[in-house]
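FW: tagging you since you asked about this chain on Friday. Here's the raw sequence from the shared folder, copied in full. Didn't touch anything.
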Amino acid sequence: MSLAALLVLADGRFPAGGHAHSGGAEAACKAGRIHDAATLEDFCRGRLHTSGLTAAALAAAAVLGLDPAVLDAAADARTPSPALRTAARRLGRQLLRAARATWPDPGLERLAAAFPRGAHQPVVLGLTARAARLGPLDAAHVAAYESVGGPATATVRLLGLDPFEASGVLARLAPELDAVAARAAEAGRRALLDGPEALPAASSPLLEIAAEAHADWPVRLFAS
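HL: got it, structure written out here
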């Protein structure tokens, strides 16, 4: 494991395209479900334990060597919303572009050849972590953090929320983030023996519904 590589991959300035996506926060802000730090914390907690857990487990399983095509199909099955599937593949394509330049690796080249239009972002994240010599728990931590860090940053821009308050939300969620990452890494290990059915499929229907509505907005600040 390289701690420096983990910091590079988790850095919000890594050019993986996440800054253009709100993780559902834009739709939640418009609907009034996020309007202050307390409701942002509620939103992030829900996202962490559902889509965040699922993404973290997919990333961990990819690090451990499960077939990326199998994992991509598993990600598709766990993402009912066409808008979110499209967003996940766009993010995966952008992450793969950055990863290939940062950590050249045959596994990333094979992934690019197999998925010219982009694989799901958590799968790409896992292969990227593997190329960077990181482990399943590291990849799970990055995925789990992304699931809450993106909405928190987006809400600062959407509502003018105090950045200190947004950072406080993330700090309070840190113990839960650690627990989710550990659970996801263990699920990835089980999937080695039992197949992708062992991976979590935690549901967040409201995020899926909101994503479909958001995709039809004529004007929006974020891509998703």
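FW: The two ends are 32 Å apart (CA to CA).
HL: agreed, and The chain has a mean pLDDT of 95.
FW: great, closing this out.
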